[in-house]
User: What shape does this take?
Amino acid sequence: MSLPEGLYFDLVRADEVPAAYNLEVEGFPPDEAATLEKLQYRQQHASNLFLGAYLPSRELIASCTSTASSSPTLTHDSMSTHEPGGRTVCLHSVVVSPVYRRHGVASALLRAYIERLTHASPGRYAEVRLLAHEELVKLYERIGFENVGRSDIQHGERPWWELRHAIEQPPDQAAAAQTFDQSALLTALQQQLASKNAPADVKTVDELGGPPAAEGPGVKKLNKSKARCPRPGCNSLLFLRNAAELLALSTSHPLANTPSDPLLPAPQPDYAWRLPGPMSFENITFSKVAPGAPEGVSKFLGCGECELGPLGWVDGRGCWIDVRRAVYDGR
Assistant: This one.
């Protein structure tokens, strides 16, 4: 069977943890399922490691959740708490709604998860480790995990096997981490100019509780914060304060059914930032439109530094950036 139509992946929000818990209860025996409190702990302390698979209505149909550890192998201790600086990702569970099992959802979710970890800051994570029952070992091996043998951990009545998946740095990141020549210096300077003193913290729309726009009767809803590329480690400046206006969309979202980088969340369906033209941006790139693009869309927009996209689109009314596909200065 094929994947559900419109399936996308995004980080699980705090208010969605109960839905993830329902999946956990449906998917595991009582002596193996995580408690609601454990899932809430993981979302609170390791939210970037809690990924969900969603239908277009944002119905959560699958999830995987992890914590980080400095331990090179899985133990009761390493899987009990989250170490923010740990380089081993301890994957606690991968669970799919009974309705959508045998549709390839678990494999797709795991591949998206590995992809996100691979494109985190260079060297941030070294490997993913998980425990599986014997009948699931082959599934994980097909995705690239290596079976390292039977685990000593006792959790429930059945034995567990431990598997690992190395996190390979993309070639461009690995090279950047190993060499520093004149070319690297020029690139670093260009990034510094593009980022315009990127702040120590940036926030998503969800973390801000909504788009950072001016409010009031008769007031244009201009952006109150600088908008940046959402890729961790890039955060290149896209546009300055008061450069974009928040407007409602009169048609279906042009990016709703457009293939996107796995790092990007599903678009906000109701409104977007509109900028008058290319000169309104600080750093942007324009791509060719693929066949089947929505009517009226002439180009897609991406980060001018790392080329992450699509972040938005161009049509007859101007340039648009999806509010969820940018992060904003937290200060």
